[in-house]
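Hi R.,

Here's the chain you asked about this morning:
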Amino acid sequence: MTNIQPARLYTEELEGPVHSSGLKFLQYDWRGYSERLEHENQRLHQSLTVLSNARDQEHEIVGRLEAQNAKLEHRAGEMTQSLNTINTEYSRLRTEYHRLTQALAQSQNRESIAWSSYEQLRNLFSGKAKDGGTDVDLNNAESLRLCIVNLVVKSQWKEMDIRGLQTKVNTQQAEIQRLMMEIGRLEAMSLSPSSSGESDADTIEEEKESVDHS
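And here is the predicted structure, written out as tokens:
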């Protein structure tokens, strides 16, 4: 700040009573003092204007940052809710997958039993038949007749059951493949970062740097 000397100091150099020349000098000194004051006042006014503008810019930046923060918090809430929905759906699909896996195992077991019974019927005509785990006496006509009737009846619905089971197994295998693809897609969605979140973070960093420079 400029060192302003009061005008009264210049009068100390005058000796004796102040005469006309001293009055003229004093009047001239006050004029220069007034000009310096006016110049200093303008400089201070400009500094205050700069500070006021900087404060307004700071308030504007803070307002934008607060609005951006509120927006990010709202988006984070939406993403959390979406993630919870994905996790719930994922759990449901995993439960459905295990259920279908168990059903497939049961179907394959029933298919194996059906094929075993069918093989018993085929073996009957080669002299190797068994009925319920018991050897059939091929020399006993009644035993043989009952065995043939029993196996023929069983073979009819078991062949139909086998075809139905094969269709069901194929359907369940296709469903399991679809569920596995859906589970993979949901896992990828839950692990992938949000590009918009990165953009928002960059924007906040730029705003903070702008405030620091101001």
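One quick note: The chain has one domain: 19-202.

Cheers,
M.
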